[in-house]
Amino acid sequence: MVSSAHEALHRIFRDHPDLFYRLSSRLGYDLPPPTKAAVECPDVTETAAIERRIDTLIRFETESQGPFLLAVEAQGKPDPAKPSSWAYYVSYLWSKYRLPTHLMVVCQDRRTAAWAQRPVSSGLPFLPTLTVRPMVVGPHNTPVIADPRQAREDILMATLSAITHAAEPDIDDILKALSRALRDVPEDQGSQVVEYTAQGLRHGRAKQLWKELLMADTSFYRSWLFEEVRDEGRAETFVASILLVLVLEQRGVKVSEEVRKRVEDIDDPEVLRMVLARAVTAPTAEAIFDGATPAGPWAQPRGGGAGPQP
Prior knowledge:
Elements: H1 4-15, H2 18-26, E1 34-40, E2 56-62, E3 68-75, H3 82-97, E4 101-107, H4 110-117, E5 120-124, E6 127-132, E7 135-137, H5 148-153, H6 155-164, H7 171-181, H8 187-200, H9 204-214, H10 218-231, H11 235-250, H12 257-264, H13 269-279
Parallel strand pairs: 3-4, 4-7
Antiparallel strand pairs: 1-2, 2-3, 5-6
Helix pairs in contact: 1-6, 1-8, 6-7, 6-8, 7-9, 8-10, 10-11, 11-13
């Protein structure tokens, strides 16, 4: 099953092909400036029963070097079968379009990026026939954009920075800079950035922080996150649960992952209002559940453990 993080890693290039050029320049690649870019059909299936599909395929036009193809692949973990698939994609596209074909692999962790960077050859070690050596993008070489001013200068690059650094220690600073920069961009572009980022943050803590940062701007919050939870029928309780955690944290009360999960499990608006009221004065985060009854899933932690007794 394709994850939302997988989609975000390549979709941002499909929707904004010019981002590839700005990123390439930062990584030291001297490419001819494009005059045109068009997204092509990513299907590389032959008449055989096996379906093969590239994540994103873009055709670039340049004046000095002519056209070329860029195949973008999102990779979540090392996979020994992938290099042969990548070799097939590049060979197939080269044969079909008769155009130079480049492969870019986008990763979210350093281990996968290091694996993807290793050249893999077909043929004996002393007589390789075909070598796969993709351009790899990940937390090891994507710029860390933790300054709101820099984020405003290139909001898409800042978005890519957030997506590729989702599991890195500096993700908090990156997300804070991105959320502040969003205040100065048009709403339609900002909503798209919100969607890319929310999809790309597969790790719970970073995704939770992103939701909390978006609470400061209701237009962007409604544009995607509100729609997401509304589709699940939990918009009101979802918003209130985030507000509850914010109240505790603003008071300097430490909120554990267990408490966060218990709050997220509350599906009764009346219960949530009661717990939210307790959050204003509770000495600890756990104390907001004092007096709980076993009448609903909110009264116990996930996993069936017993909740606090009055």
